[in-house]
Amino acid sequence: MEVVIALLLLALIVVILLRPVLTVLTVHDYQRGLRYRQGHLIGLLSAGTHVALRPFTEIQLLDGRPTAITVPGQEILTADGVALRISLTARYVVADPIAAVTNDQSYMTALYAALHAGIREVVAGRSADDILAARGELGPAVGSAVASELARIGIELLGVDVRDVMVPSELKRAFAGIVAARREGEAALERARGETAALRSLANAGRMIEDNPGLLQLRVLQQVGGSSGNTVMLGIGGPDGRPAGSPPSPPPPRASGGGTGRGRAASPPRVEG
């Protein structure tokens, strides 16, 4: 029993003495571990727990998960001399940890610099109208322009997208005027189409009435049937002022100048004085 206690005390003393120079480090699945011995990179470490004895051995960890960054907006002159402020978002992954730490002092700084140069290269060859019309194409174009440079430092781009395109205020007003004029033109065109259709309908109706005069009376009856309190007389009056189709009135009696008295009015008796 005393021997066991002595061994435990000895092990505890050894741990206490080695603690300042002993490092126990765990490498997770999503991390990349780089082992250095006396300042020389000797290889990558797999996931698990590793022990390093300082100062002879050092372990450096890199995150191997995909990461998103935002490249702040910068003013860039287009091919037609318009200053646009464009910002980007990019997703990347450290594909080669050894190249990332040995081929550049800071792979993050190199990544930002490459994206800035890429957006300038893409925008400089296009006009402002082309950039605003094909905004979705700028990100892939930037990614293609900087892919080889980033591969040199072990970075793989997963995607690049344009976040914002900010135009000068005077250009905004000009674009707003263009849009308003386009909308007014479309509205005027629709009004003209409606008026043309209405005139065409009236012309067709006129030809139908000319070919079929009875349609006008049917239309009047239809209109009257939908209203109240109206009196409409259809048809044309005769020569004596009576409605057409009514029986003629009897002729007035005529006075006769002679004869036997048939048909003559009796004269009053004469009175002599």
Domain module tally = 3
| Low-confidence residue ranges | 256-273
Q: What CATH architecture of the largest domain do you see? A: 2-Layer Sandwich
Number of strands: 8
Head-to-tail CA distance between termini: 195 Å
Supply the CATH class of the largest domain. Alpha Beta
- The largest sheet has its strands arranged as 3-2-5
Overall geometry: elongated
Describe the largest sheet. Answer: 3 strands, antiparallel
SS element count, helices: 7
CATH fold naming of the largest domain: Tetrahydropterin Synthase, Chain A
Indicate the mean pLDDT: 78
Order of helices and strands: HEEEEEEEHHHHEHH
Quaternary structure of the protein: single chain
Under CATH, the homologous superfamily of the largest domain reads Band 7 domain
Question: Helical proportion?
Answer: 40-55%
Strand content: 15-25%
Radius of gyration: 53 Å
Which structural class is indicated by helix and strand composition?
alpha+beta
